[in-house]
């Protein structure tokens, strides 16, 4: 008995789910867990595509053993050397001494760095090389910076299956449902898929575009990623999401309001703007308390919405630290092509508005800050009313122009 599932007649999912890990990469919360996917092809040769995180090694080895059913393992293909996928390779090689490792030069270098010594098992491949395992033929395609430099994807030309490494992945544990068409992906998964992509691979949009371009030249019938469900239907839906995310194009016309408030006054200003926008008919508005929301969720919705309003108190004559951290994350993720609005607050030296405007204009690419701005002196009052109206009007006008 195991959690193994059949992907096709001779391909098996032998991965594991992880619901114990709190922080993916020790930084991003994963309240719904994550899966580490590994696939075993039972052709004339038996081929394992990637392994799993060390935490799931025991269950993974049991899955592999069950599918092999006494047969030997011939090849281990390493598409990505990050330890959440490669940490169990040493254990695989110990148990299957005849198994050769297929990967590229950079990946072999990383194996050495991580302390995996596979010199006598090495089958080095490069872009465009092919391999036959019997009925199945595969070709290897470099996917640098999706999401590490050594990353590659493997295309099974016999069945049209792309072993896509980190591409087309998602947070969330599979909990038995292997295929995207076995869940309501657009309702229950897309937010976590977006959060996975934007925070893990978001910085490398141009490289993802490069890979999407290569993928468009081959007849792909299925994506087998290293996290999240396998895609065998409606691939265009998921490709379109990745195309938008990697081009930094918003998915929706809407306003994301992120506030940093110490005593509730900046929060009140953020809520006033939200009400003003909704009063005027712009109801696709989402409001976040930055102090209560992990930055990975803010990053994900920044990629989703067309317009972002930052409302920040002034703190030690600077931007409130979590707001600064959010902006810094956007910068490091190469975030671009958005329209921003500003609400600032301060009791004796209001600085946050100017500082946020400067940061956006100098550090983020192709981002515009609206001239209309709300300046609160300690607490919003009736003197701010024209500013709220003007900022809401400017946001709506900008949304309508897009
Ligand atoms: Fe899921 Fe880049 O490793």
Note down, in words, how this protein is organized.
By secondary structure, the chain is α/β, with parallel strands linked by helices. It folds into two domains: 5-247, Ribonuclease Z/Hydroxyacylglutathione hydrolase-like (Metallo-beta-lactamase, Chain A), CATH 3.60.15; 255-401, Rossmann fold. It contains 13 helices and 22 strands. The strands form five sheets. It has a seven-stranded mixed β-sheet. α4 (105-113) links the parallel β10 (100-103) and β11 (122-124). α7 (205-215) runs antiparallel to α8 (235-247). It is elongated, with a radius of gyration of 24 Å. The structure holds MU-OXO-diiron. Residues 80, 82, 84-85, 147-148, 166, 226-227 line the site of MU-OXO-diiron (FEO).
